[in-house]
Design goal:
Number of strands: 2
Distance between the termini: 26 Å
Helix content: 55-70%
Strand order of the largest sheet: 1-2
Structural class: mainly alpha
Length: 245
Amino acid sequence: MQLVRATYDERVSDIEAHFELIKNISDAIGSGGARFPVNGSHYTITIQQQRILFSSTYLQLYNLVESTVNQLLSAVGRHSQSGISGDLTKLSDKIRDLYLKHMIPPEDNLTPEKRLQRALKLLHQAVGVESVEITIPRGGGGNWDMIEINRLNNRIGVDLTLPAPVREKLNRPYRNDKGPLRYIKEVRNNLGHGSISFADCGTGHVYSEFRTLIDIVKEYLEHLMNAYEQYIDNGHYLSTDPEEE
């Protein structure tokens, strides 16, 4: 989990630096204009540029969410791999099922030749000819919000219990009657697919909205990391987990 938290802290630092920039620019614009010297003259930041900076915050927040989820899955894979000493029967039912789906996905996802290669590799791992390399399928790419993350938690067996005040913040509509994580996901996808311009996306915002949004996302992800850390520390990826017996 040390790597997970280090990556998380690095992404949060980027977001906080970005927020400091948009806050200072917004304050300067509100005081008459954000200007700074360039080559003996002065450059003035426009409202359009301010809006682009606003919309970029959504991309950074989605990047933080997806990065954290991916890092947590990798951590579960690493600990599962080291905890079973090559014996796949020691995995919990849920982790074993996920791993099998990774090795041999539905027929339309692999050619017959690739499926045969994967099946042989799995057989060799099962009999100890090859070392086991546990990979947890990520899924959810481009669509990580509370619903998808909860589905993932259920597939793995992670119990995420959020305090009532946190649940209230996450379920409270942020914009367009959507909760914060869902709205971040949809904005990210709309920007990524070109459905909306960065300037249009940032229209009608004030920088203080992003302070609230950043804090909600951070609070949620910190609870999520704690839940996965408890899952790993208690060895719930192993078949010896009392709930699996």
